[in-house]
Amino acid sequence: MVNRLWAAVAVAVLGASLAVGTAQEKLVSGPQVGGTVPGPFHPLNITGEKAGKKNCLYCANGENPVAVVFARDLTPQVAELIKQIDKATVANSKESLGSYAVFCSDDEKLADKLKAFAEKEKIEKLVLSIDNPAGPEKYKIAKDADVTVLYYNTFKVAANHTFRGRTA
User: Whose CA is closest to 105, among 58, 49, 158, 46?
Assistant: First the structure.
């Protein structure tokens, strides 16, 4: 069951990766495959049940399978990735697939941009949030990583895809 969930998310990640671009050398960002997710952190939720509040999305999803996007900006490629992961989350809600995106940024206009995006694109399940530019400390999001996508289940990392190369 979990493999089927990840397959849906992987299609979204791989499709977006072609547009985001990759570096020639491997960029290490975030917890790696086989490791455990470092634990709670409290980004400002922009959408979802706790919109407008700092809330632990790691805690909210518990041991369920989860797809997470750490991004620097809402580029068209990141927007498409989020839309595809949201669709996979909705389609796999019976399996309790969770998803959220954490924007590592101090852009004061980002919250409004994310709200407008979520409304326009009808993002149903994936929670959009904002954290500081470095991201949650224990997660070790590389400063050169524009996008880091994780998939984990029972707090164990099953996949990590990291990209650099901002595109407008």
Answer: 46
